[in-house]
Amino acid sequence: MLELPLTFLQRPAASGTPRPWLLVLMHGVGSNEHDLFSLSSQIPERFHVLSLRAPHRMGPGSHAWFDFSIEPGGARSINEAQEAASRALVAQAVESAAKQLDIPPERTVVGGFSQGGIMALSLLLTRPELMHAALVWHSRLLAQVLPLQAQHNALRGRKLWLSHGTHDNIIPLANAQAIAHHMATLPVSVSYHEFPSEHEIRPSELAATVAWLESLSTQPSAY
User: Fold this and answer.
1) pLDDT band per the 50, 70, 90 thresholds, residue 223
2) I need a labelling partner for 77 at 20 to 30 A (CA). Which of 85, 86, 180, 215 fits?
3) What predicted TM-score, i.e. pTM, was given to this entire model?
């Protein structure tokens, strides 16, 4: 039985899978671990899927990784202490799950949607030694993590799936483009895709993501 510092749901890799992979997923604001776990039936069977619940309760079945507010001009400010504490908990959960499941970082992927995607991207940039790749849906880059970014050498060989909706009215497309622009300065292999959708994961986006996961898990490691 897995013991982690956050509440979670899991779908084990198919029994007898040689060299299984680990996929850790994180939901957006106001949701919970059941949200992205509903996609697990479509994730390749060689992945052990974990869906984490954010630690801050907003209401029944509603959780967040950190509080934020939107200023009159549209700028966002976040609770930086909560974000840092949640990021530390996620790092601990990823590291602990990988150790208990005996899955090394080179077969670990950390992903999320919206605020969960922020957490996945932040973890890739600050703790790249925990994973081979990150998966970021409809999200944005926090300015607060940039001073904490790992050295270029530590990021070498890492991969990033980055997708967004062209009609996303919650986190505008410019945020994904800004992530892609930032990642272009780093030794990370980025797969960037835009879809004609709003703040949601439509079947076409999920199918493309799953194809990327498939290719990731069937290629020899780059390091």
Assistant:
1) very low
2) 180
3) 0.96
